Amino acid sequence: METKQKNPVVDLEAETSELTHGKRSGVAQVPYEDCDSSYSWQHFSVICSVEIVDKVKTIAHNEGFSIRDVVEKFLGDGIARYEHKHGTVAHQQKDINDIL
User: Fold this and answer.
1) Mean pLDDT, all residues of the chain
2) Which has the closest alpha carbon to 41: 50, 31, 49?
3) How many alpha carbons fall within 13 Å on the CB side of residue 89?
4) The pTM is what?
5) What is the pLDDT of residue 38?
6) What is the pLDDT of residues 20-44, one digit of tens each?
7) DSSP per residue over 51-99, as a string?
8) What's the count of helices (H) and strands (E) in the chain, helices before strands?
9) Based on C-alpha coordinates, what's the Rg of the chain?
């Protein structure tokens, strides 16, 4: 009986698929409303240029911070500049009947 050898590329693809499409352990398992407000984080993905991503990673590595810390600092500073120009940003729930 012939034994089939595993294809390492296919096996790697299967493992990667499990990591990217399976249960996501990196996302907070506690419901957002149940989190301590001082540590309430929400998963937020963005697409950036490779140059920006590389620079953020380099800054985080060189300064000993997490990528999340660096990105959060940059976003917070950008929001502060926006609010300085345009006023405080407040989340407003829109009624679909007012829009459509």
Assistant:
1) 76
2) 31
3) 9
4) 0.54
5) 63
6) 444 444 444 444 455 455 668 888 8
7) HHHHHHHHHHHHHT--HHHHHHHHHHHHHHHHHHHH------PPPHHHH
8) 4, 0
9) 21
Please give the structure tokens belonging to residue 29: 């398992």
Task: Answer for the pair 68, 58: CB distance below 8 angstroms, yes or no.
Answer: no
d(CA 58, CA 56): 5
User: 58-88 burial by CB neighbour count: b if 16+ within 10 A, else e?
Assistant: ebbeeeeeeeeebbeeeeeeeeeeeeeeeee
**Per residue of the chain (100 residues), what is the pLDDT tens digit?**
555 555 544 455 555 555 444 444 444 444 445 545 566 888 889 999 999 999 999 999 999 999 999 999 999 999 999 999 999 988 878 888 887 7
Q: How many residues does the chain have?
A: 100
Distance CA 32, CA 66 (A): 22
Q: Quote the CA–CA distance of 90 and 100 in Å, as a whole number.
A: 22
